[in-house]
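STRUCTURE:
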């Protein structure tokens, strides 16, 4: 066997070893991901804790959705004396 043939043989063996290692790593990663995923992991009984929070936000100060007592939304649309733009015909 020549040196070239030996080198080719070593490259072939290395390629197979890399492929097998990569496949094993992918399978291991998939197994770990599946076992730890919340949708498929076994349900573990945990102690329940209650968290209470207080908010300093006052909804009465919000004016974003407040009505203007007129009952209509007259402020929606073009302002001033702007006329609607109507395009007729095809160009």
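SEQUENCE:
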């Amino acid at each position: 066997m020549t040196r070239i043939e030996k080198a080719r043989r070593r490259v072939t063996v290395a390629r197979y070893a890399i492929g097998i290692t990569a496949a094993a790593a992918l399978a291991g990663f998939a197994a770990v991901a599946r076992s730890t995923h919340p949708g498929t992991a076994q349900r573990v009984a945990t102690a329940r804790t209650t968290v209470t929070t207080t908010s300093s936000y006052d909804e009465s100060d919000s004016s974003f959705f407040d009505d203007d007592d007129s009952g209509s939304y007259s402020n929606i649309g073009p302002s001033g004396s702007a006329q609607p733009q109507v395009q007729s015909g095809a160009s």
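REMARK: The helical segments are 3-36.
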